[in-house]
Amino acid sequence: MHAPRPFAVLGSTNGSAYSQLAAATGRTFDPGAGNTATITLSTAVNTRHVRLTFTGNTGWPAGQLSEYEIYS
C-alpha cells in the first residue's frame, strides 16, 4: 500500500471562481484495489469545472495523476 496523498477537490460553475467540494485529506491508493480513491460529494453540488489540488505527498517529494473520472 502506498503512503497517503493529500489532495482537495474544487469546483466552479464558470471556470474562474473555485470553491472547495472536498477538503485536502490523505487518500491511500492501494495497488491491490486498483490504485483508486473514491470521493463522494454532497448531492447539492452544482459545478461544471473540477480541479484537484495536491497539497503534499508523505511518501515521495513529487506527485502523479494518470486519470480521474467524474460521475453524476
Walk me through what this model shows.
- This protein is 0% helix and 32% strand.
- The chain is mainly beta and 72 residues long.
- It has a domain at 5-54.
- It has a 3-stranded antiparallel β-sheet, with no helix packed on it.
- Strand 1 and strand 2 (19-27) form a beta hairpin.
- The radius of gyration is 13 Å and the shape is globular.
- The mean pLDDT is 81.
Question: What attributes does this structure have?
Answer:
single chain, 72 residues, mainly beta, 3-stranded antiparallel β-sheet
The main β sheet shows up as: 3 strands, antiparallel
Distance between the termini: 29 Å
Structural class by helix and strand composition: mainly beta
Shape: globular
Tally of individual helices: 0
Mean pLDDT: 81
Going across the major beta sheet, what is the strand order?
Answer: 2-1-3
Query: Nearest-angstrom radius of gyration?
Result: 13 Å
The number of strands is 3
**Helix fraction by DSSP (H/I, runs of at least 4):** under 10%
Contiguous low-pLDDT stretches (5 residues minimum) are: none
The amount of beta strand, in percent, is 25-35%
Order of helices and strands: EEE
Question: What is this structure's SSE topology?
Answer:
Layout: E1 5-12, E2 19-27, E3 49-54
Antiparallel strand pairs: 1-2, 1-3
